Backbone:
């Protein structure tokens, strides 16, 4: 792909007959420019995806609740997210009098940065990751675990009651569910024998079921079904979304850590939350649903399969929000520590014994 | 200067500044956040040594979990900085002695190569060398007993900490989720048949 982009540039500059001159001083910078091009190619669709996920959420939940949802701005309301963004952009960012000024403005950036940085290791198609690192899964876990700082610091720096309560809740909840997420991933690592995200996807495209032409039966979701459910539900809890949204429960603590924020500072939290939603849907697709692999042998693999799987998971998240009432806080903690963690701890030896037995399907 | 050297100095400089701010910051929450920054940069330094597992584990375990709980506790403490500073000068001699001792020990470790008592070989590994795999192999084969022993000690510590703080209050209205789920409508609701009353004629 790099060479075809270079060829395009060559063609473009040759229109003016300047290619040799341009390339003579441009060549040392090309690797840097190429990385920046790739970053933009990931970042811009991500932000568009975030914008239209908010639109999809309002339309889908509207349909589920027999309402219409936004339909005034643009055709079928398609310009609504642009209008919302513009509005937030033009609003004043208010600093509460007793807030900690530096941390108050650092917090939104700390929420946003990990949500974007993690995308560097996500493989979109075979060989299509910005950084195809060997410890990709660890990198993913490490960087996503930083996201909680944005919320905690926001809650503390606001110097206000509800934000602080929200921050305390989120700190406990996110640390708890990271444990079960990590343990579920241990099973994935065992069966795919790699920490590289691309290798994990490739490992799912092997086996008797793939040879028989029904590849979707060889993906990790089927042999590791309990872990798939644990990871999916922990992912929703990690996102602080309904039914685990006690962090920003409107009826109890208004909006949790975001109460004192306005304008773009608030928008940053919003962007981070939706970027994380898309990220969790991508990781579920990669770890359990075969990433870019096609479900049937006669269809080609490609990025569209990953996008289709991600859209399905995202729809599931919206569906969950429209369906379930909010969990009580002690029940959230009980589910994380007393149900998911023991289940993972049992399933890891089960997978280990399975792999050592003659019935091992991951050879 | 090589790019790697530049990166090393950037990480090292930020880490040193953050470490100094940990002990000089007046606000304890700021101090904890500077400690987080120092950890993060230490992880970066380890990455430049190709020790990617250690680097990421440091960020994941310390920054992602331990420091979050640290912050959690520090935010909820009612800390009066003025009272904490009382007796600073009377504790100073002991603290200074300890500090100088620790600095001296670290200097000895780092200069051992110079004095010829130990030798570190800056070995570079091939590109397909996996730090994670190698550490895992060592931990679960050569050092499996010390590793298991350490985990049992940690488990004992966890149980001890839980036992020390666990108090069952008698006035707590505890609900058993299994019982809640098993409830049938007949347990809670009694439908009473009432004969319809005739409307009295006026």
Residues:
């Amino acid at each position: 792909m790099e060479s075809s982009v270079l060829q395009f540039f060559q063609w473009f500059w040759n229109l003016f007959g300047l290619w040799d001159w341009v390339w003579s001083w441009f060549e040392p910078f090309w690797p840097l420019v190429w990385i920046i091009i790739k970053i933009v190619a990931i970042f811009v669709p991500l932000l568009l995806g975030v914008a239209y996920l908010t639109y999809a959420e309002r339309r889908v939940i509207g349909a589920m609740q027999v309402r219409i949802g936004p339909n005034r701005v643009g055709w079928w309301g398609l310009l609504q997210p642009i209008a919302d963004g513009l509005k937030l952009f033009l609003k004043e960012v208010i600093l509460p009098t007793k807030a900690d000024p530096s941390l108050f403005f650092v917090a939104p950036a700390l929420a946003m940065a990990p949500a974007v940085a993690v995308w560097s290791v996500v493989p979109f198609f075979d060989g299509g990751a910005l950084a195809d690192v060997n410890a990709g899964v660890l990198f993913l876990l490490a960087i996503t675990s930083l996201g909680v700082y944005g919320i905690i610091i926001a809650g503390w720096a606001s110097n206000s009651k509800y934000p602080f309560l929200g921050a305390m809740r989120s700190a406990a909840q996110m640390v708890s569910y990271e444990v079960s997420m990590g343990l579920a991933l241990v099973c994935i690592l065992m069966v795919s024998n790699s920490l590289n995200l691309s290798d994990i996807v490739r490992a799912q495209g092997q086996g008797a079921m793939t040879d028989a032409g029904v590849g979707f039966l060889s993906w990790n979701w089927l042999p590791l079904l309990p872990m798939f459910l644990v990871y999916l539900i922990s992912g929703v809890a990690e996102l602080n979304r309904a039914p685990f949204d006690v962090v920003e429960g409107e009826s109890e603590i208004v909006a949790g850590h975001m109460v004192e924020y306005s304008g773009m500072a608030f928008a940053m939290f919003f962007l981070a939350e939706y970027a994380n939603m898309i990220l969790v849907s991508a990781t579920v697709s990669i770890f359990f649903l075969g990433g870019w692999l096609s479900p049937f042998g006669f269809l080609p693999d490609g990025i569209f399969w990953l996008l289709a799987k991600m859209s399905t998971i995202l729809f599931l998240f919206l569906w969950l929000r429209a369906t379930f009432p909010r969990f009580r806080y002690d029940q959230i903690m009980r589910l994380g520590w007393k149900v998911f963690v023991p289940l993972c701890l049992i399933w890891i030896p089960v997978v280990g014994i399975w792999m050592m037995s003659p019935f091992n399907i991951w050879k | 200067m090589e790019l790697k050297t530049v990166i090393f100095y950037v990480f090292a400089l930020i880490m040193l500044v953050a470490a100094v701010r940990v002990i000089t910051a007046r606000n304890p929450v700021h101090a904890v956040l500077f400690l987080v920054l120092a950890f993060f940069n230490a992880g970066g330094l380890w990455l430049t040594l190709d020790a990617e597992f250690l680097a990421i584990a440091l960020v994941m375990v310390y920054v992602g979990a331990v420091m979050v709980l640290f912050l959690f506790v520090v935010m909820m403490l009612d800390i009066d900085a003025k009272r904490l500073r009382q007796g600073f000068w009377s504790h100073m001699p002991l603290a200074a002695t300890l500090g100088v001792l620790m600095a001296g020990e670290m200097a000895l470790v780092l200069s051992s190569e110079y004095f010829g008592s130990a030798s570190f070989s800056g070995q570079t590994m091939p590109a397909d060398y996996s730090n994670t795999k190698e550490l895992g192999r060592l931990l679960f084969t050569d050092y499996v007993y010390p590793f298991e022993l350490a985990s049992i000690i940690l488990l004992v510590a966890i149980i001890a900490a839980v036992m020390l703080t666990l108090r069952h209050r008698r006035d707590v209205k505890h609900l058993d989720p299994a019982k809640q789920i098993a409830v049938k409508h007949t347990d809670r609701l009694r439908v009473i048949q009432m004969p319809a009353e005739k409307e009295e004629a006026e």
Notes: Chain A has one domain: 91-356. Residues 91-356 of chain A form one domain. Chain A has 15 helices and no strands.
